[in-house]
Design a protein that fits this description.
Strand order of the largest sheet: 9-8-7-10-6-1-4-5-11
Number of domains: 1
CATH architecture: 3-Layer(aba) Sandwich
Structural class: alpha/beta
Strand content: 15-25%
Largest sheet: 9 strands, mixed
Number of helices: 6
Number of strands: 11
Oligomer: single chain
CATH class: Alpha Beta
Shape: globular
């Protein structure tokens, strides 16, 4: 069984500048980390790898500095890592990103199971995973809470719906996006860091992809354009109340009603 996990490097801080012309984040020179939701996807894949003796590779799209998250995946137990990187991919919206990733995954050969996190913390769209599956023309299930069974032909999962939990069996190959806390992600291993220090990160560029139509990638392939993007203002104000429990409880209820939380 071959498992492919999509991971992404995201800003490790909210202090991020925006390119006013393109409306995209300026990622150069800022602290970065692996997208937290991808840690759950990677942990899910690592457990399947151990249970089914599967091969596990990770793929990421980004600038060369994104190699750091692939090396982090090596330190957790991934076998191979691929970085999809080219200036032609820059400025991609979710559609162009999904298409580029689908082409990158296709270039790796057959994947029985593709796993992604629910969403990324720098985009919050939760669209890339399902769109990758659509481009690859394979079934997909989003918001997976638990994996109930996995065999050579199918995977049975518990998925989180808006008002219910649904159990679904999906034929392989397929893609799943996993919820936070499906498993507790493990920490990177220092032993694996030493063991994988010389393990290469394979680069995939535009010229390595089957589709070489530049209008499908980056800004050219993005039907949506950001008009304005900005970090939310930080609210640092606080109030301190003193009094008896009954009085404070009533005051808290009135405050929540005032803020329209209740």
């Amino acid at each position: 069984m071959n498992i492919t996990v999509c991971i992404k490097q995201v800003p490790g801080t909210s202090e991020v500048e925006i390119d006013e012309k393109t409306g995209v984040l300026k990622r150069e020179g800022i602290d970065s980390k692996m997208n937290p939701y991808d840690l759950y996807a990677l942990e899910t894949a690592l457990r399947i790898k151990s249970d089914k003796n599967a091969g596990l590779r990770v793929i990421s799209m980004g600038p060369p500095q994104a190699e750091a998250v692939i090396r982090e995946a090596y330190m957790m137990g991934a076998d191979e890592g691929y970085l999809l990187t080219d200036r032609k991919f820059a400025g991609a919206d979710v559609l162009a990103t999904s298409y580029a990733l689908s082409q990158g995954i296709r270039s790796l050969g057959h994947s029985d199971l593709i796993i992604t996190g629910k969403m990324t913390t720098d985009g919050d769209t939760a669209q890339v995973g399902p769109e990758i599956a659509e481009y690859l023309q394979i079934p997909h299930v989003a918001n997976v809470l638990r994996i109930l069974e996995l065999n050579e032909k199918s995977i049975t999962v518990e998925m989180n719906m808006a008002e219910s939990v649904e159990i679904q069996e999906v034929l392989l190959p397929c893609l799943i996006t996993v919820e936070k806390d499906i498993y507790q992600p493990r920490l990177p291993s220092f032993k694996l860091k030493l063991k994988t220090a010389d393990r290469p990160v394979h680069y995939i560029t535009f010229n390595d992809l089957e589709d070489k139509d530049e209008s499908h990638y980056g800004l050219k392939g993005s039907p949506t354009q950001v008009l304005k993007i900005f970090p939310p203002p930080a609210k640092t104000t606080s109030e301190r109340w003193e009094g008896k429990g009954e009085e404070l409880g009533q005051r808290l209820a009135e405050k929540l009603h005032e803020l329209k939380f209740i």
